[in-house]
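Sample entry (396 residues):
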Amino acid sequence: MIAAIRMSQAVQALAKYPTGKELSVFLKGYFKQFPKMGSRDRREVSQLVYGALRVKNLFPSANTEQRIWLGSLLCEAETSPFATHWTPHFTQTDWPGSLDFEQKLAWLKEKGFSAQWEGFFPHAEAISSAVELQSFYAAHLATPLTWIRVRQKHLQATIKELEQKGLAYEQHPALPTALALKAGVKLDALQCWAQGWIEVQDLASQMTGSLFQPKANERWLDACAGAGGKSLLLLDLQPDASLFVTDVRDEILQRLHERFKRAGIRSYSRAVVDLTRPGVLQEAGSFPKQFDAIIADVPCSGSGTWASSPEMLESQRQLDISSFTERQYQIAANLLPSVKSGGRLIYLTCSVYAAENEEVISRLLKHDSLELGQQQYFQYSEEGGDILFGAVLLKR
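Predicted structure, serialized as tokens:
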């Protein structure tokens, strides 16, 4: 009875969902129409909706009810009673028991549900050959973890609070200050959050800190600062760095300021700057003319982060990758005069498309003053994280 109700509720929600809208925002508004639904009801329906969207392009011929069932079967860590209940309805046989992911796919294929990986990800032909596709695709069929970065001196106190609250966590073996929690944990209810001891930051994003190598008293510019995650990472690595930040949107810099206040950071300079305009940094108030290092976390497709937003697998079918690449090149090229001789430009994206990454770097290296220090993909699909690209360009 409950399984039938949940199926009906999920079907209704999917019927109302407008393609392209952020799924979490839609569901929050949608559930307001049903005030009698409890938190468990909303959570279970949300899980079914997310699963159905995750498998939509994997099983393009399946109807809505079949996608809901397939999502429940493939996207949950353990086979749920919901999936077990509906298996005979769609296959005329009971669920055979405990199977791993590949075994599930093989069993479903026998029952007429064959996965179509070639149409699963938008513009798959444009994905860099450096990306390991099997784990990358598989990550889109699981709920990503919530990764937090803990300030080193508060690590033990944070772990103690998580354990006292009964919150399960995983500590990354190569980066002990990176902790993974299940999605949906109310971090703002924790003391470690209120005290500014932790930051929400994906594992791949945290790992890009290995490119920074900051020294005391260096002048650093976070050129596309956004919410300030890379700046906070930089200052944790080197508190004595002199920090300057820019973004094209004043409201974003206001949010950055609030985030910095929570982290106890007061000493930095900021300016609203459109980096697609050549020479614009020279107009940025009291900013220095040149920097020891510039972080350019440029606007991108975000394709390395879509595992947490399955709606993107559908809405980005018409994505124009070239609309990003020209702007990315312009921003990076316009920053080069502000990198001092012997300094470095750290180019970052959260994209898996070679055109936004390796190809932009190849264009930049045509400048005689530059040489490549290193470039790599930070892929943490199997750890419930994203994929980011990073490159260090050295200025002679």
